[in-house]
Amino acid sequence: PEWVKQWGDLPSVTAFVCDFADTLVRRYQDRVKRWHVGGGLNHAATCGLGDDDRLRLAARLLETARQACPDGEWVIGVAQPWGDYLEGGEHPYSPLIFVDTLMRAGFSFAGVGLEVACGPGPRASRPRDVLDVFRLLE
């Protein structure tokens, strides 16, 4: 949400997000087994944070959720899975590198949620045809 940007520093954003995730997972862990955690944290405009800070936030969020429910299954969400946000050249992590880095840090996922949104908007990709979507899923 937009109000998160006013807290723009990593410790504050991490504290808010992790507290919310901990509360939510503990409350519903007996009813929910698979959790979609961190939708779009790979995206360049998320929370006004840099690439490394968004990666740290994702890792801390996953660790918090895993501690709250050790038996849970985790799905990480990826915005602009084709990496449209990389065109400016100032962001080093493609969507797949973002997920791969988390996996190399020891996190396992039940799946990767691909946010395929085409059209206007900060997290939308350029329009793609069905073959492009098929290649992405493959």
What's the SSE blueprint?
Layout: H1 10-28, E1 34-37, H2 51-68, E2 73-79, H3 95-104, E3 111-115, H4 130-137
General description of the model:
By secondary structure, the protein is of the alpha/beta class. It contains four helices and three strands. It has a three-stranded parallel beta sheet, covered by helices on one side. Strand 1, helix 2 (51-68) and strand 2 (73-79) form a beta-alpha-beta unit. Helix 1 (10-28) packs parallel to helix 2 (51-68). It is globular. The termini are far apart.
Total strand segments: 3
N-end to C-end Cα span: 32 Å
| N-to-C SSE string, H for helix and E for strand | HEHEHEH
Low-confidence stretches: none
Which value, in Å, is the CA radius of gyration? 15 Å
The biggest sheet, with number of strands, parallel, antiparallel or mixed sense and barrel status, is: 3 strands, parallel
- Strand order, biggest sheet? 1-2-3
What is the number of helical segments per DSSP (H or I, 4+ residues)? 4
Would you tell me the structural class of the helices and strands? Answer: alpha/beta
Note the overall shape.
globular
Portion of residues within helices: 25-40%
Provide the β-strand percentage band.
5-15%
- The whole-number mean of residue pLDDT values reads 87
Task: Give me a quick take on this structure.
40% of the residues lie in helices and 12% in strands.
What key attributes describe this structure?
alpha/beta; three-stranded parallel sheet; 138 residues; 4 helices; globular
